[in-house]
Amino acid sequence: MALDKIAIAKRIAKEVKDGYFVNLGIGIPTLVANYVRNDINVDFQSENGVLGMGPFPFEGEEDADIINAGKQTITTLPGASFFDSATSFGMIRGQHVDLTILGAMEVAENGDIANWKIPGKMVKGMGGAMDLVASAENIIVAMMHVNKAGESKLLKRCTLPLTGVGCVKKIVTELAVLEIVPEGFKLLERAPGVTVDDIIKATEGNLIIEGEIPEMVIE
User: Fold this and answer.
1) Starting from the edge strand earliest in sequence, which strands make up the sheet with 43-46, in order?
2) Which of 27, 36, 92, 172 has its CA 20 to 30 A from that of 6?
3) How far apart are CA 102 and CA 198, in angstroms?
4) CB of 128 within 8 A of CB of 89?
5) What distance in Å separates the CA atoms of residue 203 and residue 154, rounded to the nearest whole number?
């Protein structure tokens, strides 16, 4: 059974460690703040100028003046701070973010990522993705394994304009958890009910399989 977006976010939340400063990209990554363990201290940063984001607000409790980079309403935790974009990107470019979680359209087996533009389609701009991937030491991608046509998004080489080169460390999809190693995509975990053969068929890039592959533990 392939995971839904919430399950992907829950699995990525397990990668967040105590004391981390974490930047959450637009899309699935924004859900991660909802599922981090309560017994650890984590500061979520949004590039539009927020440090100390909390989970999404309950319906009826939204404040339209408090939003993330994706223009979604958010909550803030005690001690949160607000600042301008120059300060925000100073944090990012100064490598003060411990973990960056991004969405992607494509990831290549060497860790290249394409997540900002599809040629011929209107885009508002690249946002902060290029700064994030150029500055972060630890990048996890949250994405669908295949596109709407059933074609793999984990490729030998990206076909879309690149956001960053050789920067992705780990990927969590609806089918699997994979790590980028020199040889390609190393399969670490498979989604509940998903077989290794399912993942092989959905992966264009070089897939490394060593021993028995355990199922993901979501909860």
Assistant:
1) 76-82, 50-53, 43-46, 21-24, 99-102, 139-142, 170-172, 176-181, 184-190, 207-208
2) 92
3) 24
4) yes
5) 6
Q: For residue 130, give Cα distances in angstroms to 27, 126, 194, 199.
A: 16, 7, 33, 29
Count helices and strands (H / E) in the chain. Answer: 4, 13
Position 31: which residue type? L
Q: What is the pLDDT of residues 61-107, one digit of tens each?
A: 999 999 988 889 999 999 999 999 899 999 999 999 999 999 999 99
Catalytic residues: 47
The residues facing 155 across adjacent strands are: 108
**Which pLDDT tens digit goes with each residue over 124-136?**
566 677 788 878 8
Q: Report how far apart, in Å, the C-alpha atoms of 216 and of each of 134, 153, 169, 187 are.
A: 29, 20, 18, 11
**CA–CA gap between residue 63 and residue 130 (Å, rounded):** 29
Please give the Cα distance from 56 to 73 (Å, whole number): 7
DSSP 42-108: -EEEETTTEEEE-SPPPTT---TT-B-TTS-B--EEEEEEE--HHHHHHHHHTT--SEEEE--SEEE
The rounded distance, in Å, linking the Cα atoms of 143 and 104 is 6
Residues sharing a CB contact under 8 Å with residue 66, sequence separation 6 or more, in sequence order: 50, 73, 74, 75, 76
